[in-house]
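Quick illustration for those who missed Monday's session on complexes.
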Amino acid sequence: MNELHPALQPPGARSNGEPRPGDPRHIGAQASVEPRGVAVAVVAPEATERDVRRLVEHVRAAGVEASVYDVGPGVILLSDVSVGQIDAIIGHDRAVERVFLPDTPYRLARREVQRSGTIVSIGGVPFGGDSFGIIAGPCAVEGAEAILQAARACAANGAVVLRGGAFKPRSSPYRFQGHGVIALEWLAAAREATGLPVVSECLAVDMIETMYPYVDAFQVGARNMQNFDLLRALSDIDKPIVLKRGFAATVEEWLLAAEYLLAGGNDQVILVERGIRTFNAGTRFTLDLASMALAKRETHLPVIVDPSHATGEPALIAPMTLAALAAGADGVMIEVHPAPHLALSDGDQAIRPHELGELAGRLAPIAAAVGRTLTMHPVGERR
Ligand code: PEP
Ligand code: MN
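Prediction with manganese (II) ion bound:
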């Protein structure tokens, strides 16, 4: 077997100990010419900034390009290196905990970067780790009094983050497009009154600055998952991003969208499985829980489920939420409206606050069975 630096870990050895494709042992053992590629060096938790700077200078002096990312414990990407070169350059450097050669186009989003998983906090509410959190609220912010009433009802029934769109991406230009900036003020007032942090959808780059003071997290909608300008701009801010999966996006494309945010410097990303388009016309979309579980395996980022847009059907919200928790999701986002028949958008899929409360009660035993803690309101310290 190839003699490798102990830090050069395979991305995830098979249980039988055999290397898998992408594992440097695999490459080293089979290729006569050493392949070259990108290597991901995960910074050791005890390494100081000085250690990292020194290592990067050393790598560059050896003629290898190195970029540092503030993701997880810190990551250095080395481009176009061979296994032998990595071993020679990094050697037993104490600034590096492990090195792997990614066999996927996403690098910073890979689970190996942060094996225990990243915890993302929306205004003090944690997503990831052992926590399971409920984000709830109406599809759209419909008025000052309406959002306040909805927020109070959601808080009283198990929600720990409030959702509500001020700007709505609608399939038809004739339908309600959201109340705009004034709705952000109503949303922020509801946050003040209830203590629930808020998440709201950002549709375009030029809205980021306007929204920034009002929201605790920015939602990127399914229709914008591959709006790369928007992702690049949001990678620059210091608030979390709730990234919906596009309804025709593969898991790889979804994780690459997250990679845009990470590569730009924002590692506070929560992924949302919200259903994909299939031949099935019985539900609004098809909830792809297997891909939620796959994403959980592939990335260190928290992954939550939106059963509302996925099913479009109030009666299916509870079973899909219970399944999401049992299957390992880090939370859910549910559309809740005190009077769904009066809702200005997506009323057909909204559940009522008391139904959210009943559902929250049913989640508790499942959470206990799968080693999760349901996050409760009032929440701890604000971020
Ligand atoms: C929403 O959350 O209101 C929404 C528009 O969701 P999606 O982008 O998943 O369709
Ligand atoms: Mn909606």
